[in-house]
Amino acid sequence: MSEFIDTCRTLVGAANVLTDSADLERYLTDWRRRFTGKALAVVRPASTEEVAAVIRLCNEHRVPVVPQGGNTGLVLGSVPDQSGTAIVLSLSRLNRIRGVDTINNTMTVEAGCILEQIQNAAADAGRLFPLSLAAEGSCTIGGNLATNAGGTAVLRYGNARELCLGLEVVTAEGEVWDGLRGLRKDNTGYDLRDLYIGAEGTLGVITAAVMKIFPQPKGQLTALAAVEAPEHALRLLSLAQERCGAALTGFELMSNFCLQLVTKHFPQMRLPFPQPYAQYVLLELSDSESEEHANTLLEGLITEALEQEIAQDAVIASSIAQSKALWNLREHIPLAQAEEGKNIKHDVSVPISLIGEFIRVTDVQLQEQFPGCRMVTFGHLGDGNLHYNVSPPEIGSQDAFIEHQSAINRVVHDSVHRFNGSISAEHGLGALKRDEVRAYKSDVELRLMRTLKQALDPHNLMNPGKVI
């Protein structure tokens, strides 16, 4: 493979073809540091043309390609396997914001742009880019699109797919499809954009995108409400949608145990209530009229929720600092889980109306089969996406508990399937869930997916072993 590596160096520059083990490690190890793959090299192109040239070279030599953005995925979708036959195609150097159009309310960005960079560029133009994730300081928009990322504002603005109007893609054969049209209406055939979004790099490489931006809200307010059960949270959601309409941009559910972990491992954080409650809801309103109007809406909602005994207690943030403090409670849940030790993560979705029943039924099943397990249940209630995670019992060997991961996954995923849900809501399938999903998709659906893969990547070089 020396000729192949030498040609890669010619195409992108010797400094951008990494082969030393010390340089490769951060590209080969997944975000949770539980798996390290192997690769021929990490190749770092700086333009769409260079990406296309590298892909054509890989076709010629039949070298598999693992596209990678910020490598913040949780399902082993952005790291190579142990064969050592693939290259990692890092898109980190494709990091230009090509243009901002405040009349069309769009921004054209390259795949390697960090999400936070795009948020800041939109703000500089007096606009809002609403996609928001815990990893926004390190994840890239290419990875967000490849996994159809969700985040905390899906309720109002939709997933990454809904925020994208057009793509530039290097196909599996090294051709460039320029679909950067920025149109909200284009009824001229198959929607190629939607094929590549959510495909996790298995059909081609997203190199740039046209993303929607929005007017900055005039007022943005946050509240934390305590509720007795997930069913009460659903009643609060219905009331909030009825009273606040499109102003409701965030609605996050967190169990008491989630926040117990946060305050245990981050003692500088405090819950704003004198006593604990079973469940909590974090609400955010973004109002286009004024902060005063947003405050009137939120105060009216909270007052009515308390009067109807939907909520047991509530606080409204009176400053930006207080709002950040409330959001920090939510964002520190995964960090607190990591501090607590090993755990088994599930990123699932079920119809919103069935979330309460799903949690109740599945909790019982897990306790019956794995007594003492602790449920870390939180997520984007407004769009039906739960992070339904299982921590080991407080006493006993964590490693011994983790050995039950396959059995625990089966309990959770079978329950998700019975509730007509999905075993991956926003993290994708990667390699981790590739085989698992076969138990829940029909033969027809799997056959259609394989047909698309074969048609668009006939040599199976694009991120092989992932998704399908």
UniProtKB/TrEMBL annotation:
Key word Glycoprotein present: no
Gene3D superfamilies the record matches: 3.30.465.10, 3.30.70.2190, 3.30.70.2740, Uridine Diphospho-n-acetylenolpyruvylglucosamine Reductase, domain 2, Vanillyl-alcohol Oxidase, Chain A, domain 4
Domain FAD-binding PCMH-type stretches: 35-216
InterPro entries linked: FAD-bd_oxidored_4_C, FAD-bd_PCMH, FAD-bd_PCMH-like_sf, FAD-bd_PCMH_sub1, FAD-bd_PCMH_sub2, FAD-linked_Oxase-like_C, FAD-oxidored/transferase_4, Oxid_FAD_bind_N
Record keywords: FAD, Flavoprotein
Family affiliation: Belongs to the FAD-binding oxidoreductase/transferase type 4 family.
PANTHER family linked: BLL6224 PROTEIN, D-2-HYDROXYGLUTARATE DEHYDROGENASE, MITOCHONDRIAL
The protein, known as: FAD-binding oxidoreductase
Species: Noviherbaspirillum album
